[in-house]
Fold Deaminase.
Amino acid sequence: MSLGASADGKITLHRDRILLRPEHRRVWASLSQDDAGPPVEQRLDVQATLEGSGSLVDHDAGPLTGLPAPTADPAELHTHHLPPSVVDDPARRYWFAAVNGRGRVRWQQENPPGWAVLVLVCRSTPLDYLQWLRQRSICYLVAGAEQVDLPSALDALGDELGITRLASTAGGSLNAALLRAGLIDEVELTLFPALVGGADTPTILDGTPLGPEQLPTRLELLASEVMPRGTVRLRYRVSASASASASASASAGD
Ligand SMILES: NC(=O)c1ccc[n+]([C@@H]2O[C@H](COP(=O)([O-])OP(=O)(O)OC[C@H]3O[C@@H](n4cnc5c(N)ncnc54)[C@H](OP(=O)(O)O)[C@@H]3O)[C@@H](O)[C@H]2O)c1
């Protein structure tokens, strides 16, 4: 996962201010003082980024409304939709994958050059939304029943599209779910010289708290870099053995 955060770990200005909105993005971008370097897809040499719907719509937004009633067979709508016109497009270099199990995101027609959208949905995603994606030739993968099953979704990314290097650039809720599912192997944090505060403001890692038997995930520092204007970039490997041995000690009552 790769995130930009204030020194106090906040990843936006306020729970109600998603950085997609230009007025909030401007303020957020000013925190880095042009110090952040090349974009993540180049920096980490990934084939895809992964976002959550929380970065793309307000946190209280519901499923899209006013879509035409589904006419296609549900079984067909529940199969992956990967039109060759998108998958095999020689101009496409990167996938912008997004977890969107509730069908909340209204995709625009135009993607930035070189990018294609890949929506991760599940069997409870509204059928009218799936049909709407198909009518717009927007790719989607179906994984899970009530919500997107993250391990299955990542498997499908590899099996269907050959994606083996992916960076989650999502917010704290999705990153926490990925971490708890054991799906994060590296963490890149870009810390801006600023403080935001706010108990309810999204952070690097939100989601469910540690359970009574769970211990923090240990990290091994791989690299650190201090930029000229005070931004700090840290790169860690998630240390499976450290967290496993800590759990073993805890269960042995140490
Ligand atoms: N500074 C940065 O680098 C940065 C990066 C990203 C975001 N942000 C900011 O952070 C805020 C959004 O963060 P957030 O934490 O509210 O949103 P988020 O990370 O997008 O989390 C919500 C997403 O996680 C999915 N999700 C959560 N738990 C899950 C689970 N157990 N299994 C499967 N999917 C799960 C949800 O799925 P459904 O859609 O299916 O419900 C939804 O797509 C926004 O303000 C955004 O601007 C900042």
Summary: Residues 32 and 69 are 45 Å apart (CA to CA). The longest strand covers residues 219-226. Residues 242-254 have pLDDT under 50 and may be disordered. The beta strands are 2-6, 48-52, 94-99, 115-121, 139-142, 166-168, 186-192, 219-226, 232-238.
